[in-house]
Amino acid sequence: MDTPPRWLNPEEKAAWDSFIRMREALVGRLPRRARAGSGVSAADYIVLANLTGRGHGRMRFLDLARSVEWEKSRMSHQVTRMAKRGLVAREECPDDGRGAFVVATPAGYKAIEEAPPPHVEHVRRLFVDALTPSQLSALARISQRVLDHMEKRPD
Predict the structure, then answer these.
(1) Which of 82, 55, 81 is nearest to 66 (CA)?
(2) What is the pTM of this model?
(3) What is the pLDDT of residues 8-64, one digit of tens each?
(4) Is residue 98 one of the residues assigned to a domain?
(5) Is-contact 75 43, C-beta < 8 A?
(6) Residue 86 near residue 107 (C-beta atoms within 8 A)
(7) Contact 109, 52 (CB under 8 A)
């Protein structure tokens, strides 16, 4: 027996719709600004930040895809585009013939070092400056709560 959907009430729907509109507006505006300032797209930034931060410059392909919550095909296309521009390289995994590593190149390190200042300024201008310190704190707590909730309920 199928359970009927639990429809959103007006307050829940308003919260969800506002969140989605805000997210889409930020996701649309921030990458345009970042790329104009540094030549690094939002997707490039996400990959490079994960490689150079969490991965110390090198991660297994599937671990990188999981860390940014992308499908394998999306990661493959992104890594291919970045490799053509010299930002990353692929290396075979000696322990596993089917596995591969994604490695940040010197050009990738340079790009990630140059990208943050304009990106941070746009995040501040479009997001941080719109909220009070207590609102930012509440948003951080709420966001973490949703992330923790999602961890307990995998797809």
Answers:
(1) 55
(2) 0.69
(3) 999 999 999 999 999 988 887 876 655 555 678 878 888 998 999 876 889 999 999
(4) yes
(5) no
(6) yes
(7) yes
